[in-house]
Amino acid sequence: MKKIAILTVAVVLVLSSLGVGFAKWFDRINIEGTVTTGSVDLVVVDYSGTYVYKDLDHDDPGMWNGGFACVVSSPDPLDEGTIEEAGLELISYAEASQTMDGDEPVDDAVTVVFDNLFPTLDRDFDFVADVVFHYEGTIPARLYLDLDDIEFGEGSEWIGELIEDGYVWAEMYYVEPADGGWEPTGETVEPCDQLHYCDYIKLDIHFAIPQFEDEEANNEMMNLSGSATFHFDVVQWNETLGCGES
């Protein structure tokens, strides 16, 4: 009888130890995550300008410009075949293009050239250089534009005077692709406007040479050269100072 009791206790101890070993039931959930950051990115997608040609075959003394007709082409220059067939000569132009450092393009930089400008009677046309931008950022951005922050090159004060007198100005507005060109939407771009993915905006820079009644004042506008630089920024929409509520 004593031997049976001892065996029973041994069996109970073994079963108890087995119970402790198999009581750890569990389930596991694995969590895997990814992190991405957004972007603020304004890209130049198109350039255009104003090109003024003299018609070499047209001679009419009664014309306002002394007998040589002007042919104005915009937004693109005429092709060489048309120029030769029509008997034209390029006289003046305004043109925007990619800024280059030798053979390498400079990122986020545009060069605008106004070459050999002259007065136009009653402002029949201005010389205009155009740039089209495409907003490709994934984060909404605000446009921060300060046209008062213009840096003039040495001897270029006369450009600032023309800006003050309204002969040089810039305008920026929203456009949409249309028939190989750009169709204005009717909305202008204002400082601190929000830009969203795939917005297109167009910048027109106008330059007109004044025609004064005073002959001496007119002559002072000849043979001038100058340069100016300005910039604008796009900043994530909730971080631009001075733009009110985000």
Describe the 3D structure.
The protein is an alpha+beta fold and 246 residues long. The protein has one domain. The protein has four helices and 13 strands. Strands 1, 2, 3, 4, 5, 8, 9 and 11 form an eight-stranded antiparallel beta sheet that branches. The relative contact order is 0.16. The model has no long low-confidence stretch (mean pLDDT 82).
Q: What keyword list fits this structure?
A:
246 residues, alpha+beta, eight-stranded antiparallel sheet, three-stranded antiparallel sheet, 13 strands
Tell me about the largest β-sheet.
8 strands, antiparallel
Strand content: 35-45%
Counted by DSSP, the helix tally is 4
Quaternary class: single chain
- What is the alpha-carbon Rg in Å? 35 Å
Overall 3D form: elongated
Structural class: alpha+beta
N-to-C CA distance: 90 Å
Summarize the SSE layout with pairings.
Layout: H1 2-21, E1 42-55, E2 70-73, H2 80-86, E3 88-101, E4 104-115, E5 127-135, E6 141-145, E7 151-152, H3 157-164, E8 168-178, E9 181-188, E10 194-195, E11 200-207, H4 215-219, E12 228-229, E13 232-236
Antiparallel strand pairs: 1-2, 1-3, 1-5, 3-4, 5-11, 6-10, 6-13, 7-12, 8-9, 8-11
